[in-house]
Amino acid sequence: MKSKKFLATLSLTTMLFGSILVGCSGGEKETDKGDNKTDSGEKVEVTLAGWGGNPTEEKLLKQTLEDFESLHPNIDVKLEVITEQYMDVIKTRLIGGEGPDVFYLDAFEAPALIETGVIQPLDEYVTEEFDVKDFEKPLLEAFQVDGKTYGFPKDYSTLALFYNKKMLDEAGIEVPTTIEDFREAAKTLTKNDKYGFGVAPELARMYWLAQSNGGDVVKDDKANFASKEVVDGLQPIIEMHNVDKSAVEPKEVGVTWGGEIFGQEKAAMVIEGNWAIPFLADTFPDVEYGTAELPTVNGKKSTMAYTVAYVMNAATEKKEASWELLSYLTGKEGMETWTSKGYALPTRKSVAEKLGFNNDELRGALVDGAPYATVWAEGPNLPIITNNFNNQFMSAFLGDRPLEEALKEAQKQANNEISN
C-alpha cells in the first residue's frame, strides 16, 4: 500500500499554491467555463491520464475515444498511460502544474486528494440530460463530499462467491447463502489437499465481513477495527484457517491469488470480483463454476465495491472541453462501448440492463450487489488504517496470537500515525 507521507506533502504544497489554483479554476464563475470554447473552430487538445489495461481494454478505450473525437471534431484527446506508481506520478504532476486535464481516480485515493482542492467540482456542468440518477448510488457517493460531486465512476466491481460446481455436487451440498452455511460447506469441501475456501486475508477483501456485526472499521477518520463488533465479525476467518483447517491463503499452496487457487481447483470457493471472470475464461476454461451473492450475516446482505472515476484537474484551462470528454466517457454511449465486453461493469444501471449484465449467468450476482455495496473508500486516512491492519492481522491469521490482541496493537499504531 502506498505511503501517506507523499500525500501530506501534497496537502501542504496545495496550501501554498492554492491561490494559483483558484485563479486558474475560477471557482464557479460562468466565465471560466467558456475560456476554451469548443465551437470556436479551433482545435482543443485535452490530456487524459490513466493506467494501462489488457489488450482488449486498451482497444475498447481507444474505440471510445475515437467515437468521442468523431462527435467532437474540435477536440483532440491525448491519452497518457502511466504504467507504474500511478498516484505518485499524478500527485507530482499536479504539484508541478503539469497535471492532466482529466484522469482516473480510484475511490480508495479519492477522499485524500479531494481534500487538497486539486479536483474540480463538477456539479455546475451537469445537465438533466446527463442523468445522474442513473448511476448506482453507492458508487457515485464515493466521489461526493459535502454535497459536491468531484467525479463520475466509469466502472466497478463488487465481490461475489465463486464456487466450483463439480466439487459442490460431489460433496452433495448446496451453494451456501449464510455465513454459517458457508463455514460448514468449507469444512465438508476440505479433503485430499483441497480446501473449502481460498481466502485473501487483507482488509480490502474482508471489510464487508468486518462490519457485518454493526461495527465500524473507521470512525471519525481513525482506526476502530479493534472494537468487539469488528473482531467478532472477522473471527470466523481466523477459526476457519486455524481450527477448521478449511481456509487457506493462496500463497500457502504455491499460487498468487484467489483466481489462481480457484482455477487450479485447490479451493472449491473463493470471494472475488469481476476481474476473475475473464481470467478464468482465458486461463482455466475447463473449470465449471458459478457465482452467487456473498453469504448473509445476521440475515443481512453485504459486499464490497471497487470503483474508479474520471475527474477533472481544478487547474486546467480547458474546463469546457474536459467536461465534454468526461461526460461522454461516463455517459450512456461512451460507457456502453467501454464496458461492452464485460471486462469492467457499467456504473449506470441502464447500461448494465442494456448489455444484459444484470441477467448474466456469472455477472448477475456482481451487479445485484451494487445497490447495497460498501465502496472501498473511507476517508483520507484509509491507506494508513489499511497498512496497519494488514500488517498485524496476518499474525492472528497464522495463529501466532489472538485476533483481538493483534488488532489492538494495529489500531494503536494506526491512530498514532494519523495523529502525528
TrEMBL record:
Q: Which PROSITE patterns match?
A: PROKAR_LIPOPROTEIN (PS51257)
Output the superkingdom of the source species. Bacteria
Q: Would the keyword Signal be found if you checked this record's keyword annotation?
A: yes
Q: Kindly state which keywords UniProt assigns to this record, in alphabetical order.
A: Signal, Transport
Q: Which InterPro entries match?
A: SBP (IPR006059)
Which CDD domains does this one have? Answer: PBP2_UgpB
Pfam families according to UniProt: SBP_bac_1
Q: Which family does it belong to?
A: Belongs to the bacterial solute-binding protein 1 family.
Name-wise, this protein is ABC transporter substrate-binding protein
